[in-house]
Design a protein that fits this description.
The complex is a heterodimer of chains A (390) and B (207). By secondary structure, chain A is α+β, with helices and mostly antiparallel strands. Helix content of chain A is 15%, strand content 34%. Chain A contains three helices and 22 strands. Chain A has helices at residues 3-33, 338-348, 372-389; strands spanning 38-45, 50-53, 57-66, 74-83, 88-90, 96-97, 108-114, 117-125, 137-146, 150-156, 160-163, 173-176, 184-190, 198-203, 222-228, 233-239, 242-246, 251-258, 266-272, 279-281, 297-298, 311-313. In chain A, the strands form three sheets. In chain A, strands 1, 2, 3, 4, 5, 6, 7, 8, 9, 10, 11, 12 and 13 form a 13-stranded mixed β-sheet that branches. In chain A, strand 17 and strand 18 (251-258) form a beta hairpin. Residues 29-34 of chain A have low confidence and may be disordered. Chain B is an alpha+beta fold and 207 residues long. Chain B has one helix at residues 3-44; strands at residues 62-68, 72-74, 79-87, 91-101, 107-113, 123-127, 132-138, 145-147, 152-162, 166-172, 184-187, 196-198, 200-206. In chain B, strands 2, 4, 6, 7, 8, 10, 11 and 13 form an eight-stranded mixed β-sheet that branches. In chain B, strand 6 and strand 7 form a beta hairpin. Mean pLDDT of chain B is 84; it is low at 34-57. The chains are: A alpha+beta (390), B alpha+beta (207).
């Protein structure tokens, strides 16, 4: 081989080695640039416009979604949400971490004003084992109150996430890739139509007493369906009741909201809680299951003034509790079954406690601690429901 | 060896070494990410073993068998039906909710008894309205009820008295008609619903 050929070969090899080195270095830089071992997306839900009336509450969720094919268990989220606090405002004490996804219920929140908007920096972390963490879930639930008519956005600013890295406990950063994702939640607040009738009722949750400290109204949002005897209905979600006394055995909650229409005739009310089966109330002071079609509640008893509209009493038939998990996750599926029983029983053996005002999905009696009584309440609810069904 | 010879032989060797190292490192990075993705995906789909490569959940952890000594009955002669559940692997369960469909216009059901290994049912009822024999066992013990492989429990045994002639079925309800009536066995600790298979018993009633 002559010198010229050798030189050419050496040159080619050096160029290939150089290119390979450049590719390798660039790969490492990509990893280091995001300071991340994985990728996720952080968004606000719902991604459709939220429409509410002045005085109503609504919830917005900070939700993370793992990249396709990658499940990184998230254990920390810090985000900033900014909003016009003349139209909407965060309800004190109602911003919570998603305990079901392993986060501590009570987040760290700091407020400041930026360019005429109120901004809340919210931080949630997890103390749980990685087996409890999720790759896709809500991290934070923000509860807002509609203060004044108008429209706007809740905008999410720069955020940070950490996750469980099974390969390196010291490398926890997760890159947030929000390209194309929704980072604003739009809202429209309608003025209160004070001509519409007000529906007011008192209700109760089976197993929850007046002294139970982890059954705050903000954690017990109701879904209420008003069904008229002409088979039309209107659904009101996120109805936040107000505590109204009661006994150690049974706490009372009062709920009220304006109906969307001023119909005439009879109606019935279906009420569902966050861990509870839907219950039909067809008459005032109902104490047993209402098994007839239609209802006996009268629209003529309703007015548009809070002091004069009739208060219905449904607390004599508390909502049955125990609908906590479904086939796929910790969401309701409309039944209390062996799956719910196993979930609550497993949680009850942890004997976990949370501070006053906290929340645990399986804490069915709302006393801030997991115990056998939660299991008993579920079993009794199941028994009662089975009697109704069969 | 003069300087030119050093350059002639050493430089190519160095270049080749750098080239090989680059290729190995790039390939290693790719394999690491793929393995992590596979592990995470395996966890996501509920593989019960933590190591990739081991067997996933076994199908039909339990087998229900509805049987009777005599499938040919007459109007004045009833029979006894047994609903047995056999384990196909060693498991512990938290709940056994059984719903058996039958024709209430064809049979009167009575004297339902259960395996002595099972606890008292949380709920049991013969629902003529729904045509279902309902039995819900909820296991209070923290470790559940252990059912070993090949172990068979008589989940329920009951008397049937024919009321009319014809051909009639007894079968496990899967909840297709009403989701609350889904027969379900829930595993302890995981709270997973375990798969099962079941048969259909056909009974002939003659005069």
């Amino acid at each position: 081989m002559n010198t010229k050929t050798t030189t050419i070969i050496i040159g080619i090899l050096m160029i290939v080695a150089l290119v390979g080195g450049v590719i390798l270095v660039n790969q490492n830089q990509d990893t280091r640039r995001g300071a991340a071992f994985s990728t996720s997306t952080l968004i606000l839900l719902p991604n459709s416009t939220i429409t509410k009336t002045v005085g109503e509450n609504f919830q917005v969720h900070v939700n993370y979604v793992g990249a396709t094919g990658i499940v990184t268990k998230i254990d920390g989220v810090q985000t900033v949400v900014c909003y016009d606090n003349s139209k909407i405002n965060l309800v004190d004490g109602e911003t919570v971490g998603n305990n079901a996804a392993g986060f501590e219920t009570v987040p760290i929140i700091a407020y400041n004003d930026v360019s005429g908007k109120k901004c809340a920096t919210v931080v949630v972390n997890s103390k749980q084992n990685a087996t409890v963490l999720r790759g896709t879930a809500d991290a934070i639930t923000l509860t807002y109150k509609a203060m004044a008519a108008g429209s706007g956005d809740i905008e999410m600013g720069r955020s940070l996430m950490t996750g469980d890295n099974p390969n390196n406990a010291l490398d926890k950063w997760v890159t947030i890739n929000n390209t194309g994702a929704v980072v604003k939640a739009n809202y429209v607040i309608n003025p209160e139509n004070t001509t519409m009738p007000l529906l007011k009722f008192r209700m109760a949750f089976y197993g929850i007493g007046a002294s139970d400290a982890c059954a705050e109204p903000g954690r017990m949002p109701l879904t209420v369906t008003v069904r008229y005897n002409d088979d039309t209905n209107e659904v009101h979600t996120n109805v936040i009741p107000v505590k109204a006394g009661g006994t150690n055995a049974l706490a009372y909650y009062d709920a009220s909201f304006r109906l969307n229409t001023a119909k005439t005739g009879n109606f019935s009310v279906f009420v569902k809680g966050p861990k509870h089966l839907q219950m039909k109330y067809g008459r005032d002071n109902q104490r047993v299951n209402y098994e007839k079609a239609g209802g006996e509640l009268l629209t003529t008893d309703l007015t548009n003034i809070a002091d004069t509209t009739k208060m219905y009493h449904f607390e004599g038939l508390p909502l049955l509790t125990g609908d906590v998990v479904s086939e796929t996750d910790e969401t309701q599926n409309g039944v209390i079954d062996g799956r719910d029983f196993s979930f609550v029983k497993t949680k009850s053996t942890d004997r976990k406690e949370v501070p006053v005002g906290g929340y645990m999905l399986a804490d069915l009696n709302g006393n801030c601690q997991m115990e056998s009584q939660d299991v008993v309440i579920l079993m009794k609810s199941l028994e009662e429901k089975q009697e109704q069904l069969y | 060896m003069n300087k030119n010879n050093v350059l002639k032989y050493l430089l190519p060797i160095v270049a080749i070494i750098v080239l090989i190292e680059s290729v190995i490192l790039i390939l290693r990075l790719g394999n690491e990410r793929t393995l992590n993705q596979v592990k995470e995906n395996a966890q996501q789909v509920g593989v019960t073993n933590s190591e990739v490569g081991k067997n996933p959940v076994i199908n039909n952890v339990y087998t229900f068998d509805i049987g009777t000594a005599n499938k040919n009955l007459t109007l004045n002669k009833g029979g006894i039906i047994e609903v047995k559940m056999k384990g196909n692997s060693d498991r512990a369960v938290d709940a056994i909710n059984v719903y058996v469909k039958y024709n209430p216009e064809a049979f009167e059901i009575s004297n339902v008894v259960y395996d002595p290994k099972l606890p008292k049912p949380t709920f049991d009822k013969i629902s003529t309205e729904r045509g279902l024999i309902v039995t819900n066992f909820l296991i209070a013990e923290s470790k559940g009820l252990k059912i070993n492989k090949e172990e068979t429990l008589t989940v329920m045994k009951f008397n049937i008295t024919p009321k009319t002639t014809g051909v009639f079925n007894f079968e496990i309800s899967t909840g297709n008609e009403m989701k609350e009536s889904a027969t379900m066995i829930v595993e302890n600790a995981t709270s997973e619903v375990l798969p099962y298979s079941s048969n259909k018993l056909t009974v002939n009633v003659a005069r």
